[in-house]
Structure formats: C-alpha cells, structure tokens
Amino acid sequence: MYTYNDFDEAFVRERVAQFSGQVARRIDGSLTEEEFRPLRLMNGLYLQLHAYMLRVAIPYGTINPDQMDQLALIAEKFDKGYGHFTTRQNIQYNWPKLPDVPAILEALADVGMHAIQTSGNTIRNVTADHFAGAAADEAYDPRPVAELIRQWSTDHPEFQFLPRKFKVAVTGASHDRAVVRAHDIGVVLKEQNGVKGAEVIVGGGLGRTPMVGKTLNEFVPFADLLPYIEATVSVWNLLGRRDNKYKARIKITVHEHGIDDIRARVEERFTQIKPTFGGIDMEMLAQIEQHFVAPIFANKPVDAYTRAYENDPVFRAWADTNLAAHKNEDYSIVTISLKKPGATPGDASADQMRSMAQLARDYGHDELRISHEQNVILPHVHKSNLPALHAVLKGNDLATANAGLISDIIACPGMDYCALATARSIPVAQGIATRFDELKLEHEIGQLKIKISGCINACGHHHVGHIGILGLDRAGVENYQITLGGDGTETTVIGDRTGPGFAYDEIIPAIERLVHAYLNARLDAEETFLQAYRRLGMAPFKEALYPPKEEKANAA
Amino acid sequence: MARPFTPKIVTANALLEGDVIYLSPQDTWVRDLCDAALFSQQDQAEERLAFASKDGFVVGAYLVDAVAGENGPEPVHFREDFRRTGPSNHNHGKQAEL
Amino acid sequence: MSVIVQDGGFIADDFIGEWLDLTSDTDPATLKQYAGSAAIRIDFPAFSDGRGFTLAKILRLSGFTGRLRANGHVIADQYAMARRSGFDEVSISDELATRQPQEQWLARADWQAHDYQARVRRPATAS
Ligand code: SF4
C-alpha cells in the first residue's frame, strides 16, 4: 500500500492549516459564504439537509487497518458512532460541526488520509477496481497509476475551479468493476508492442443525461499519460459550458463538439503541455509501484476451508456469494457485506470498522478496500483462514451472505441526508431487502443488481442497475421511476425506462412483481435477470409492472 | 388572476452546527419549526428573508411554504417535514432531541 | 481603485504602459498572436470562473514572457494557484483588499512550497 513520503505528509499538514484558517476567516467575515463554499467543498465539507457532511477520500478504495481504526475513532469522537461508505469509495460522516472539522482533518492526516477534492468543481478522488492487485482476471494493477494521478491532480492550480466536477477511474482487469465508461475519464491499462500504457475513454457519466464514454485514444503510453489527461482537462476547462450546470460536464462538451473535434484539440494541447513534463513522473511511478508489490502469500493447506464448506451450510452459503477468485488459488477475495437486510446500505458502526481492521491484520495481509458497491473487501485471505474469519464476521453482524444478490443494493443517501435529493432512497433499499429476505427467494433469484438514486444526479448509479430506481418529486409526493437492463461493466448499457413511476408505498410491490415475472420467464436458474431481460425485452416486465386495469378492478 | 399567496417561513442552516433553523417572530433563530414566524404577506416574507440573509452566522436562507397548525407552522412539502425531524433510517437529528 | 498583490504584499500600481486585456472566454487558439506583448491582463469576472488559470498557462506555453496580471475577483486563497499558473500578480478591488487584508495574501506567498505540480514535472534524473 502507498504510504506518504515527507512531501505528502507536509502537504496535507499545510492543507489542514490552510483550511483551519479558512474556517476562522469565514467566521470573522473575511470570507463570504459564497467564497467559503467552494473552499470547504474542495476540502470535502458539504452542508446537507440536517447538518454538515464531511466526505473523506479513500483513494482508489485502498485503506490499511490503522486508517480504518482512525475512521472508527473519528466516528465516535466527532460524529454519531458510524460512517457511510459511498459509491465513490469514500466515507461520509453525516454530523460533524464546522468548528470540529479542522481537528478531524488533523486526525486524518495522522494516518495519511485527507478529504481533499472529494467535492467541488475539481478533479475528484480517483477510483479504481476494488479487487486491484488480487483479482484472477487482472492484467495490470491500477493502483500505481491511480496514485500517480492522485498526486498530479491534487491541488492542481488550473483545475480547482473547473466548469463542474471531474471524475477519473482506472482499471487493469478484463472485467470492469470500476465502471470506467461512466466517468469523465476512464483509464484502461494495457500494453502495446511491449510498452505499457492505457486506453483513455472520455465523456461517460450518469446524471441527467447519461452517456457511455467514448474512446479518446486507443493507446497512450505511460510516459504521455499525465500530459494527455492534463491536456484533456485543460481543453474542457476552457471549452466546457459555464452557463448551465447541467450542460457543464465533459460528456456534454464531447457530445456538442463531437469526439473527433475534442481529440484534435486535445492532441494540439498535448504537444504544448508535454515538454513541461521533465520525465520524473515515470520514476515516481516506478517508486509507487514498489508500494504495491503483492504480499508474500502463505503456502499451506486449505483443509480447514474444505471441511467448513462441506459441513457448515451457513458458511457455504456465505462462501458461495461473498468470495471471489484470487490470482493465487489458495486465496480468496472476501466481500464483507454492509447490506444486512433492513440496515442502511454502506453504513458501518465504529465497532464494525474496528473488527474489520482487526480481521485485515489477522487474516488479510493488512489490507482493506472499499467497493463502489458500498461493501468492504478483504483482498487477500488465505482459504484456511476463512472459517475463523467468518465466525468473527457473524459476531459483528457482518456475515450477510448476499454479495451480488437482490439485497446487495446500492443506495445513495437520498432525502434522508442529501440537500439535492428529490426523494428518499435508503428506506426503499431497506424495504426491498427486508421483503425479499422474508420471501426467502434471494438465492433462487441469483445475480441481480438494484441501484437506487434519490435524484437525477444518479449517485446511486441507477442507470446501470439491472433494476434502477430513481426517486423524484411529483407534485410534492415521492415518486419512483424504474429502469431495466442497465449494466455497469465492460459492456456498459444505460437502462430503459419502464413507464410511469410508482408512489413510495407502491415501489416495493412493483419490484416484487418484476422479480416474479423474471422467475416465471427465465429459461432456467442459470439465466440471470439481465440475460433474461436482454433476451425478452421490456414487454413481459412491463406487463407485470402495469397490469391491465380490469385485473386491478377484479382484484380489488 | 394572481394565485393566492401561500404563507411562508424563513429557514436556513446554522453556520457553526449546520443545524436547521427558523426565523422567529422576535427575529431570532429557533430550532423548532413550531416556534417559527409565519408570514402571510409576500412583501413581508421577502423583506424578512432579505434581513435574515444578511446574518453571517446562517447559511442558505430561503423561504418555504407552510401552513398554520395547532402548535404553530406546519410544513407543506415532505422535504421540510424531513428537515424538521431528521433522517428516517436513524433516530438522529431533531427527532432525537425531543 | 484597485490594489495590486505580489509576493511581497500589497503595492501601489507601478505599471506605466498599455495593458492588453483578455476576457475569460478568450479562444485559446487566438493566444499565440499575443506572445510578444509587453503586458497582459486576464479578467476574472467571478472567483469561481477558473478559465483564467488555464489561459495564463497557455499564454506562457506560447512564449509570452511579459507581465501577466489576474484582474478582478480573485481571493487570497487563490493566490498560489494564480502564481503557479503563470501570473505575476493579482489586482483586486479595495473592498476585497479591506475584507482580505495583506496578511491573508502573504500567507499564500510561499506558493513554491508544497507544490505537487512542480514535483511531478521535475526532470528525470540522469540514468
Ligand atoms: S443522487 Fe441525488 S439524492 Fe442521491 S446523493 Fe446524489 S445528489 Fe443526493
């Protein structure tokens, strides 16, 4: 894992001092609220519905046990004893008070963390595949490049007041777990003629106008990557629209000018910018790579695992859903579900954070990850340790066997917290998970991703959910629109809207009808919801969602 | 014909705590919606909003629809109903302080 | 009236000559022709409009070596950004200078310290 050098350390300390000064200057009137707002946002501090919210960066979702312990401590000392892991691999605290925020940032700096550029019209915290360095299908570990991009983008003088936010995601595996085609820039690592580099994808994004990213350049060698990304942001900083915030994102710029025009501009800017890079960035990358060498894997029998798998049905159910293939076949990647039915997706108590940190120390080579699906990952666990690990998880309410299933729902904070929300999303997720838990149908249904957003901004990625739910305000009442067939992987597809939305008390029964329609229509248990939808199209699902009027009358 | 004016309250968040606050009839900031001043005239509402916006210790003051209830003003929209209570998934915020 | 801010703090305007004024929506393709100018002022209509920083950078990359001033609503917290992007100085209103007095600007005069950009752009060590 990356650890701060003296420069990083001094930088975050200086930044904390600056922010402490900005808070004081806001209070004494030197800064107006209008001026303070972007400054607090670029330090991760929002003002939400009920309170401030501090969003802490977990760069590319990678975190060590000491850092996790510190997050727990902050939750207890400055918040209400819990934190919320988000779809951008960050953690949010929902109740900090403004005068405490400098102390929180200081506590983060103590463990090499910060909240810089987790908000505002800046280049946001870089995200990456949460299975990085562990996945069996990985060709290149995305984290060193992601760290290099983090350093380059941090405090970039030109890019702190962009037209809008700018999100970068990196992956190096054949299966895309980082949703790179739904980011302003997606970086897909590859090799060409023995040279390492990346495909650069631009202009993806969800929100009001969802778009799948387009290839800007098939192959940019590593030596050109930072100047190439800088050229792209530089072009957009001047060209992006500042007259309408819904048209400001680079996806709209690309859409309005065309990808070829943008590419030509980027190439031209690149030739100007490239000479300003002296070449040290490649040496820095090589050094960063040293921080991410794989742990020394144990070579020992896996009998304990086999025995538990054969004899303990609870363990087996969990192993079947929550383990993923590791590149070392004696190891597994463990998904710790933060989606216990009825709980808030992504919330973890301070005690849970500490127990996960300890598990990472005891069994996980000191590493944890946060996934964009709002779960915690232990990327390297020897199979022989899985039964013991599972026992600890059970004792801490963390052993829910539902990764990838219908109750493993992504939900943004929605109107329970978010000032921009048009409806709630958390109680909808709670309701769906609880309902399917009662029905005991979850394992029968199999892989099904439900994603819920509380407004058009789509933080809950509803467009790429197999079932997407979007909460809206229709004439002063919460109303939920459904989309079907979305896909956030390497075959990214934006889901199709089914038709009119459903009221708050109708949405859970509607989802139930949809799922029953799938169970009735699927060829066999192997055909997933998404495959069935692709084969059958909208019709059978629409019929289930909107039964003809007479039937309704008869039923009543 | 002009639509009848819906009575308004002035609300904001407190700069230091971030808490939801309301302008009272005494021009002070109160934490409970039922203690807020309800303005039935548009001019008056806008004038009090302008006054309230000048306070450096509040953030994002705005006018919101409300109706007179038995125990003071009541929200019209569900968003304001959440703001005066707290989130629905945890017993935090104002609902926990009652 | 306006106040000029440089690394040493507030100074009275000592410039004699003609400014070439550029707005923040200037087309970057047109910047090359100004490379030989003596002094250029880029307008910041609002502090949240960050185009001026990139314009400054491109002007410098195009070979402009004259005096470069950020003119308008730039706040003290942006001073380091302005300097790092290629500006020599900032010109602000009296109102802003009163609200954000000299020491708040001097606090950012050490713009060369803690600069990730300078760091990632260093020359490769000879190998
Ligand atoms: S999708 Fe909307 S409601 Fe949900 S977190 Fe994002 S902005 Fe808030």
Task: Provide a descriptive summary of the structure in words.
The complex is a heterotrimer of chains A (556), B (98) and C (127). Chain A has helices at 6-27, 33-41, 65-78, 101-109, 143-153, 222-239, 250-257, 259-273, 280-291, 303-311, 313-322, 350-363, 386-395, 426-439, 442-445, 507-521, 529-536, 539-545, 549-555; strands spanning 45-47, 52-56, 62-63, 82-85, 91-93, 127-128, 168-171, 185-192, 195-202, 214-221, 323-325, 331-336, 347-349, 368-370, 376-382, 410-411, 450-453, 467-474, 477-484, 496-497, 502-503. Chain A is α+β, with helices and mostly antiparallel strands. In chain A, helix 7 (250-257) crosses helix 8. In chain A, 59% of the residues are buried. Chain B is an alpha+beta fold and 98 residues long. In chain B, 24% of the residues lie in helices and 30% in strands. Chain B is globular, with a radius of gyration of 13 Å. The model of chain C has no long low-confidence stretch (mean pLDDT 96). Chain C has helices at 51-61, 79-85, 94-99, 102-106, 116-120; strands at residues 2-6, 9-11, 20-22, 39-44, 67-72, 89-93. By secondary structure, chain C is an alpha/beta fold. Chain C has one domain (2-9, 31-121): Rossmann fold (3-Layer(aba) Sandwich). Chains in contact: A-B, A-C. The A-C interface holds A 7, 10-11, 14-15, 18, 21-22, 25, 29-32, 35, 38-39, 121, 148, 151-152, 154-162, 226, 234, 237-238, 242, 269, 272-273, 276-284 and C 28, 47-51, 53-55, 57-58, 61-62, 75, 77-78, 80-82, 84-85, 99-101, 104, 107, 113-117, 119-125. The structure holds iron/sulfur cluster (SF4). Iron/sulfur cluster binds next to loops of chain A.
